[in-house]
């Protein structure tokens, strides 16, 4: 079942979440019409590879054209109109920046996986719940309302300034008219009456100047309060959401809304600045004793410039954190001499490449000033002679660094120097350090919202187990397309703590997570889990996404689940003793009615590279002491017929294998690997020194038909050779 098909089967509350991140940037009708094609492309890699992104964009347009031809024949007018609009959007909006559409589609697919994982959870996790707090949503609405009100107030003040200007022009004209009269005419009663009227007009001017200055002062105060309180909190919340998204959590939406608020406030401040400039102009044409403009205007202008500086300073953010193209799902881990992209201690690093660029609107889809550095390369600066630096595996992967960016904005005579920094990154010199480096990134961003605590690992705090388990589930939903359910998380919790504990109360140390070996093992919990992620990604991904790999279940729980099931029922679990290993256990019944369990030696990536796991499950054979070889695997737990569960993942159907009379290339008999185990009467564990014997299915069929069980046992215990 495609990912999009699974999404469509979600409850309405989850479908509403899906609806929120599909918009004009990537319309949902395209996601629906091209579901399988979209899911078969590597958008994550394209998000960091411009050439690949351009190819995918061109192919996407071709796919849209094919759909357009199809619906044109069906005369579906509405769909024809929408597809033409989408085609125009793709060509016009993303032609100059194809990586942006790759980022958008990659994020949408990832968010779908996260929602699917959340839907399988009995309750929403604590971190995700905090990000969707109703108080936060209410504050967002209040910010938008206040920004709109401030904009209206600034525009109303514009009208007051215009009225003041008109009033002063009238006063100036009437005053100059009187001044041009002869001295005798100035003494007339009519002129005296006009002078009284001018005095009243001057009083009105004075009142209106004070009123305008007061209104300007109120607008400035409202902007100051909004920036100091709610808008600052909104920005901090967005940065926190970005932290969480970087470690696999929900997408950090809201940047467009923040940009809109910042833009409207900037427009209002520049509008107020122009009003103050107009007052200065009026001042040069008319002033008087007690004039409020020369007293209040300098202070207000200074406050406006200060707010503009802070507004621009806070609006300069890293939109996309540093990331190596080779590891798009492991941001903030950078390898020396490997290029990375970013959109805007005793060991030091310099960035090689083009690191000076002008900000513009061409690299943005929402009209903001932005810049993207795509080819930066960190290189370690050599320390003094004789110094070796920090080389231990933990020391290297626990060192945090920050990448700083500077720019200069010149607007209306104002020059503002801005700077910002990435979230802390971990520098590695060897890809073998990547797992522990990523663990450091997870722990940091889970535990703190401080964006620049580079000394964090001098004394790393403990993490709440419930939050850590939620983040671990995100690793699976974001990296391998399916998160963990409550039963799987329970097993991980017991493995981390060695006991059954309350998620909400238990605090887990950094050492327990990543530095201390598991009891009786030569590796840490995180190394064990990372090896499983790698195994799933490279060898059993379709089976994992379909939900057929239980994976995280202890041997004890495994037997409880299987003991009352039909003989031949089996389940798949990850090995607890072998790194990156997967095994299967099936239940059998002895002649006396007793239940017995058999577990095969775990398959690791080396063996799975030789034979797909689904084929292993299909072709696996067991030789009992007095029986012919047979496949003991009948039903996937709880009661799914094996072929129904895994049939679509078999590399070929059994009847497609060549017969004994068929000849392969150069006269050889075609052969395939068949996994075979031998079980002795007094053993419940299959022996598997030669799990993968080269024997063609046709030869095996002949053996079963013509040879005795004893002869077959002898045949499969040695390797056949063809020469």
From TrEMBL:
<keyword id="KW-0805">Transcription regulation</keyword>
<dbReference type="GO" id="GO:0003677">
    <property type="term" value="F:DNA binding"/>
</dbReference>
<dbReference type="InterPro" id="IPR036860">
    <property type="entry name" value="SH2_dom_sf"/>
</dbReference>
<dbReference type="Pfam" id="PF21354">
    <property type="entry name" value="STAT_linker"/>
</dbReference>
<dbReference type="InterPro" id="IPR013800">
    <property type="entry name" value="STAT_TF_alpha"/>
</dbReference>
<protein>
    <recommendedName>
        <fullName>Signal transducer and activator of transcription</fullName>
    </recommendedName>
</protein>
<keyword id="KW-0539">Nucleus</keyword>
<dbReference type="InterPro" id="IPR013801">
    <property type="entry name" value="STAT_TF_DNA-bd"/>
</dbReference>
<feature type="domain" description="SH2">
    <location>
        <begin position="544"/>
        <end position="646"/>
    </location>
</feature>
<keyword id="KW-0963">Cytoplasm</keyword>
<dbReference type="InterPro" id="IPR012345">
    <property type="entry name" value="STAT_TF_DNA-bd_N"/>
</dbReference>
<keyword id="KW-0010">Activator</keyword>
<dbReference type="Pfam" id="PF01017">
    <property type="entry name" value="STAT_alpha"/>
</dbReference>
<dbReference type="GO" id="GO:0019221">
    <property type="term" value="P:cytokine-mediated signaling pathway"/>
</dbReference>
<dbReference type="Pfam" id="PF02865">
    <property type="entry name" value="STAT_int"/>
</dbReference>
<dbReference type="InterPro" id="IPR035856">
    <property type="entry name" value="STAT4_SH2"/>
</dbReference>
<dbReference type="InterPro" id="IPR001217">
    <property type="entry name" value="STAT"/>
</dbReference>
<keyword id="KW-0804">Transcription</keyword>
<dbReference type="GO" id="GO:0005737">
    <property type="term" value="C:cytoplasm"/>
</dbReference>
<dbReference type="GO" id="GO:0003700">
    <property type="term" value="F:DNA-binding transcription factor activity"/>
</dbReference>
<dbReference type="Pfam" id="PF02864">
    <property type="entry name" value="STAT_bind"/>
</dbReference>
<keyword id="KW-0597">Phosphoprotein</keyword>
<keyword id="KW-0007">Acetylation</keyword>
<dbReference type="InterPro" id="IPR046991">
    <property type="entry name" value="STAT4_CC"/>
</dbReference>
<dbReference type="InterPro" id="IPR048988">
    <property type="entry name" value="STAT_linker"/>
</dbReference>
<dbReference type="Pfam" id="PF00017">
    <property type="entry name" value="SH2"/>
</dbReference>
<dbReference type="InterPro" id="IPR000980">
    <property type="entry name" value="SH2"/>
</dbReference>
<dbReference type="InterPro" id="IPR015988">
    <property type="entry name" value="STAT_TF_CC"/>
</dbReference>
<keyword id="KW-0727">SH2 domain</keyword>
<dbReference type="GO" id="GO:0005634">
    <property type="term" value="C:nucleus"/>
</dbReference>
<keyword id="KW-0238">DNA-binding</keyword>
<dbReference type="InterPro" id="IPR008967">
    <property type="entry name" value="p53-like_TF_DNA-bd_sf"/>
</dbReference>
<dbReference type="InterPro" id="IPR036535">
    <property type="entry name" value="STAT_N_sf"/>
</dbReference>
<dbReference type="InterPro" id="IPR013799">
    <property type="entry name" value="STAT_TF_prot_interaction"/>
</dbReference>
<comment type="similarity">
    <text>Belongs to the transcription factor STAT family.</text>
</comment>
């Amino acid at each position: 079942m495609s990912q999009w098909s699974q999404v469509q089967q979600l409850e309405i509350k989850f479908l509403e979440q899906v609806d929120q991140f599909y918009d004009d940037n990537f319309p949902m009708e395209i996601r629906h019409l091209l579901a399988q094609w979209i899911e078969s492309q590597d958008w994550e890699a394209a998000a960091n590879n411009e050439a690949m992104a351009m190819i995918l964009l061109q192919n996407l347009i071709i796919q849209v054209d094919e759909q357009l031809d199809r619906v044109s024949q069906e005369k579906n007018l509405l769909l024809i109109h929408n597809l033409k609009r989408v085609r125009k959007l793709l060509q016009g909006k993303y032609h100059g920046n194809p990586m942006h559409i790759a980022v958008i589609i990659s994020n949408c697919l990832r968010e779908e996986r996260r929602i699917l994982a959340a839907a399988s959870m009995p309750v929403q996790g604590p971190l995700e719940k905090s990000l969707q707090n109703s108080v936060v949503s209410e504050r967002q609405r209040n910010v938008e309302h206040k920004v709109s009100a401030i904009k209206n107030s600034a525009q109303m003040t514009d009208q007051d300034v215009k009225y003041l200007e008109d009033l002063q022009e009238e006063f100036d004209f009437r005053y100059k008219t009187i001044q041009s009269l002869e001295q005798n005419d100035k003494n007339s009663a009519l002129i005296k009456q006009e002078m009284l009227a001018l005095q009243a007009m001057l009083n009105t001017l004075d009142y209106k100047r004070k009123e305008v200055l007061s209104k300007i002062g109120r607008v400035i105060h409202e902007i100051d309060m909004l920036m100091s309180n709610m808008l600052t909190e909104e920005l901090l919340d967005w940065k926190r959401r970005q932290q969480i998204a970087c470690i696999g959590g929900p997408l950090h939406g809201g940047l467009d809304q923040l940009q809109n608020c910042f833009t409207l406030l900037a427009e209002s401040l520049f509008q107020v600045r122009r009003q103050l400039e107009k007052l200065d102009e009026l001042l040069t044409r008319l002033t008087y004793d007690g004039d409020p403009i020369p007293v209040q205007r300098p202070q207000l202008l200074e406050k406006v410039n200060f707010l503009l500086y802070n507004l621009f300073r806070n609006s300069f953010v890293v939109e996309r954190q540093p990331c190596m193209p080779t590891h798009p799902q492991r941001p903030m881990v950078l390898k020396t001499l490997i290029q990375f992209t970013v959109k805007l201690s005793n060991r030091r690093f310099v960035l090689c490449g083009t690191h000076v660029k002008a900000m513009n609107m061409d690299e943005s889809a929402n009209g903001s000033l932005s810049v993207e550095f795509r080819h930066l390369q960190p290189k370690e600066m050599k320390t003094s002679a004789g110094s070796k630096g920090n080389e231990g595996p933990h020391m290297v992967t626990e060192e945090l660094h920050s990448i700083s960016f500077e720019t200069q904005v010149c607007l209306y005579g104002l020059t503002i120097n801005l700077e910002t920094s990435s979230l802390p990154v971990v520098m590695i010199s060897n890809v073998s350090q990547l797992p522990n480096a990523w663990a450091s990134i997870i722990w940091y961003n889970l535990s703190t919202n401080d964006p620049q605590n580079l000394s964090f690992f001098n004394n790393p705090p403990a993490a709440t187990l419930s939050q850590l388990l939620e983040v671990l589930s995100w690793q699976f939903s974001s990296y391998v397309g399916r998160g963990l359910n409550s039963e799987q998380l329970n097993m991980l919790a017991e493995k981390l703590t060695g006991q059954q504990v309350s998620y909400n109360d238990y605090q887990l140390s950094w050492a327990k997570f990543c530095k201390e070996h598991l009891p009786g093992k030569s590796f840490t919990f995180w190394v064990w889990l990372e090896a499983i992620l790698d195994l799933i990604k490279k060898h059993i991904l379709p089976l994992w996404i379909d939900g057929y790999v239980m994976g995280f279940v202890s041997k004890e729980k495994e037997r409880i689940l299987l003991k009352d099931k039909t003989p031949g029922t089996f389940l798949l679990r990850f090995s607890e003793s072998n790194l990156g290993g997967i095994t299967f256990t099936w239940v059998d019944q002895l002649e006396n009615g007793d239940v017995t369990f058999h577990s095969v030696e775990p398959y690791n990536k080396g063996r799975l590279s030789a034979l797909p796991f689904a084929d292993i499950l299909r072709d696996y054979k067991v030789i009992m002491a007095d029986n012919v070889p047979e496949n003991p695997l009948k039903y996937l737990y709880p009661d799914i017929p094996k072929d129904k569960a895994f049939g679509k993942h078999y590399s070929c159907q059994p009847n497609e294998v060549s017969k004994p009379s068929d000849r392969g290339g150069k006269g050889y008999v075609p052969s395939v690997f068949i996994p075979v185990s031998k079980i002795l009467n007094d053993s419940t564990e299959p022996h598997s020194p030669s799990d993968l014997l080269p024997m063609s299915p046709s030869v095996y069929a002949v053996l079963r038909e013509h040879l005795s069980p004893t002869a077959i046992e002898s045949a499969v215990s040695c390797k056949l050779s063809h020469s």
